[in-house]
Amino acid sequence: MGSKxxxxxxxxxxxxxxxxxxxxxxxxxxxxxxxDVYGEDPTVNAMEEKxxxxxxxESGLFVPSGTMANLLAIMVHCSQRGSEMICGxxxxxxxxxxxxxxxxxxxxxxxxxxxxxxxxxxxxxxxRVRDHADDHEPVTSLICVxxxxxxxxxxxxxxxxxxxxxxxxxxxxxxLHMDGARLFNAAVYLNVPASRIVRDFASVAFCVSKGLGAxxxxxxxxxxxxxxxxxxxxxALGGGMRQVGIIAAAGTIALDSMVQRLVEDHRRANAIxxxxxxxxxxxxxxxxxxxxxxxxxxxxxxxxxxxxxxCDRLATVTEDETATLGQNTAIIxxxxxxxxxxxxxxxxxxxxxxxxxxxxxxxxxxxxYESC
Length: 372
Hints:
Elements: E1 8-11, H1 22-30, H2 42-55, E2 59-63, H3 66-77, E3 83-88, H4 92-95, H5 100-103, E4 108-112, H6 122-128, E5 139-146, H7 159-172, E6 176-179, H8 183-190, H9 194-197, E7 203-207, E8 218-222, H10 224-236, H11 245-257, H12 262-277, E9 284-285, E10 295-300, H13 307-314, H14 319-325, E11 330-333, E12 335-338, E13 341-345, H15 352-371
Parallel strand pairs: 1-11, 3-4, 3-5, 5-6, 6-7
Antiparallel strand pairs: 2-8, 7-8, 9-10, 10-13, 12-13
């Protein structure tokens, strides 16, 4: 009799599914806490100071999520009624934060088409800036960018483009906010400090709950007056979390020990992308030359196969598959993005063995579709 095959599950839907490390769990258990709404939680205070220093900003604010961090930034920068912000049409703030700027902050968004590299046309951006002397028009109060750009495939925005954006925004007297949910992936890719990337931004948000592996939370950073206003608004949004040092402790570990290892996530996503690119498939394709970080988009060049069908097939196992792949048999979870594209994301719990199983499964399933 052959050896029993253990079918593993490899969850590549998002780095948000990552679980806290043992070091984080220990730090959470031992955290010294106080009431953060009163500013008396020493673990939170220390994490906020550390994060601000890393980013080269005066002050930081710990909040439950990146979505809240972005909304707070928008509410502070766009405090005048009739405000408008400019961002990319593929940005998380525009697509996946439930219209919070309009729904809650009363801020209109004017989106710009994102280029494949995550940037947008800066001349077109300037053309969208309103004439503030015209009583018919809203007031352009903020420009927001996302880095890495999630829906463009984890793209890292070029420093030269960011510098050009900053120069123009300064001339226009419009502040910049960076949704840096995966900012440290960008820093590792560029091999520069995160502070260099956000140098010219009035505010920046980043998550500790994605590639950095902490269970929950995000940091919003800026100057002291900005964070003072943000802290007040956080209370209105229900973000005053009292003895929150219990989870801030995990965020501190994330900043101390999880940043430099992000290169491993990039390497593993690269290996999967390379395998698909070299497969010769005419149906399943990736932009391998422009794969930057831990996010890989798979494009499906077929009218007969939808991304949902592809993802559903990867999440099932057949007898033929088990007979062929043996111990590499796996359930692979990835996300449909559009009708013809799907996304996978690597993170610290994904091992080289998981990557090999993923590649074997992808090759097997792609061959099935190619043979139809």
